[in-house]
Design goal:
The chain contains 23 helices and 16 strands. By secondary structure, the chain is of the alpha/beta class. It has a six-stranded mixed sheet with strand order 4-5-15-10-11-14, with helices on both faces. It binds pyridoxal-5'-phosphate. Pyridoxal-5'-phosphate binds next to helix 13. Its cofactor is pyridoxal 5'-phosphate.
């Protein structure tokens, strides 16, 4: 039996896993979503001794059930390798009475690497399975982090080419260096004279340009997207929840069958949705704590059932959570409504047209699984300090949001389940903010802050930032926004 992935907005639009990965977003604007969950036996007595790759194989085989064993091995072995600076891939650290699941040991020291290191292989394998032998060309406009993580994932993956555009004056010095020093013959980075919206607009135009599409096809190439709504990014995130449970069992922190909670710093709702999927395949999950920063639209949603994006946008120290429309929430809404695509479509259109929707007749059992709250900027900085003062461990601001929210959750409830804080970035990605939180002093610049952070935390500077100051700049192309397409055609020899 093959698992059915259905668009959240059209019951007639159903595909297999590999078709869903190749298409990315459904043509009707919906998201491909499993309408039933695979049944598999999570035998933790044996899983506790399994490697990350072995757990990945079990989970991916269940969800991506039209892939062969060889295909999955190829994808997993190429994704979770020496790019990660630890063989365990996702270490679980005990800090006082909480556990931090570190998802920042990949190329760009943030959790996007967990999925973006395997997506290129899932995408090219899916293409082959569908009889498509075109080169897959990824075009991305980035305001900093996603472009770099995507490039690191696609670098030197056979059958792919990636072109990233960023606003010349719209990213930090460190972010720019991370991109312009990217190695890989199939990677291309272009600064544009313009802002992020200009870059985004032109990328969208190129995606929709039929003439350009035909030119690509004539050259055996086609565009694709590494977008976070792709099921090929969501499913690999289920793996580390199962892995974390196995590690807790292994260390004796829990007994087999005990329930555990996860606190997840949330933006687009992809990471926490993966935790929900882990529960649906049998992981003993107690509560999923959805943590937001001052952009607390999800907190209000879980408390009131009303999703209202009409509010002030806050720029915070946890920028990857500065989001007012959490795209992946659409999948949870679909499940909450009993996989009702007509109703989901209605709500999503209301969000677009009126800026809000109200949940009625939602599955209360699913809703009760979630708790939600937010941390202010002040509370986030205080949490970094609180954890540092008692453990000498430094959390990044995103992780600290979840950590603070979970700390309050425990004070407010008598929930005794062990809690895992999903730790989504290394503090070295946000050196100034983290150092300032601990020392209450501002650093001169990012590089000084990195040195200070090393001193204070006693941890090694990760490769992703250590070599940046001296790494050769390989990408120097700057073009006008209007000339982006010319740059693409030149790279692809069209
Ligand atoms: C993307 C990101 C998040 C938010 O994850 P979602 O899946 O979008 O909810 C949190 N922290 C960091 C560091 C991120 O990069």
């Amino acid at each position: 039996m093959t698992l059915v992935y259905q668009s959240t907005r059209d019951a007639q639009n159903t595909v297999t896993a590999s078709q869903a990965i190749l298409q990315g977003l459904a043509a009707d604007g919906g998201l491909f979503t499993p309408i039933a969950f695979p049944e598999l036996e999570l035998d933790f007595e044996s899983l506790k001794d399994a490697s990350y790759q072995e757990v990945a194989k079990l989970v991916l085989a269940a969800f991506l059930d039209d892939f062969t064993e060889e295909e999955l091995d190829y994808c997993i072995d190429n994704a979770y390798d020496g790019k990660f600076d630890t063989a365990v891939i996702a270490p679980l650290i005990k800090l006082n009475d909480q556990y931090n699941l570190e998802l920042f040991h990949g190329s760009t020291i943030a959790f996007k690497d967990m999925a973006l290191s395997i997506l290129p292989y899932l995408l090219t394998t899916s293409a082959k399975k569908q009889g498509v032998d075109n080169k897959i060309v990824i075009l991305t406009a980035t305001s900093g982090d996603t472009g770099k993580a995507a490039m690191a994932g696609f670098a030197d993956v056979p059958g792919t080419e990636i072109i990233v555009f960023y606003p010349k004056d719209g990213v930090s010095k460190i972010q720019e260096l991370q991109m312009t020093t990217q190695i890989g013959a199939n990677t291309h980075v272009v600064a544009i004279d313009g802002n992020f919206d200009d870059a985004q607009t032109h990328v969208k135009q190129m995606f929709n340009d039929k003439e350009l599409g035909a030119k690509l096809l004539a050259n055996h190439a086609q565009f694709s997207s590494a977008n976070s709504m792709n099921i090929g990014r969501l499913i690999p995130q289920v793996v580390y929840y199962v892995y974390a449970y196995a590690q807790l069992l292994k260390t004796g922190a829990i007994q087999n069958g005990d329930h555990i909670n996860f606190a997840v710093p949330t933006g687009n709702f992809g990471n926490i949705l993966a935790a929900y999927y882990a529960r649906q395949i049998g992981l003993p999950v107690g509560r999923l704590v959805c943590a937001s920063n001052e952009n607390n639209v999800l907190t209000d949603f879980f408390k009131s059932g009303i999703y209202d994006k009409k509010r002030e946008f806050h720029v915070t120290t946890s920028p990857s959570m500065d989001i007012l429309v959490s795209s992946n929430l659409e999948r949870l809404i679909f499940h909450l409504l009993g996989n009702n695509s007509a109703k989901t479509k209605e709500l999503m259109e209301a969000l677009l047209e009126k800026g809000e929707y109200r949940l009625e007749n939602a599955d209360a059992a699913i809703l009760e699984l979630f708790a939600a709250d937010f941390a202010t900027e002040k509370e986030t900085a205080a949490e970094i300090k609180r954890i540092y003062d008692s453990t000498h461990y430094i959390e990044d601001p995103h992780t600290a949001v979840a950590s603070a929210v979970y700390h309050n959750y425990k004070l407010a409830t008598d929930d005794k389940n062990p809690g895992v804080i999903v730790s989504t970035a290394s503090p070295y990605k946000f050196p100034r903010v983290t150092v300032a939180a601990v020392t209450e002093e501002d650093s001169q610049d990012d590089f000084t802050a990195i040195a200070d952070l090393q001193k204070i935390s006693g941890t090694a500077v990760p490769k992703a930032v250590a070599g940046l100051k001296t790494a050769p700049v390989l990408h120097k192309n700057v073009v006008a926004a209007a000339d982006m397409q010319k740059a693409v055609e030149a790279y692809l020899g069209l």
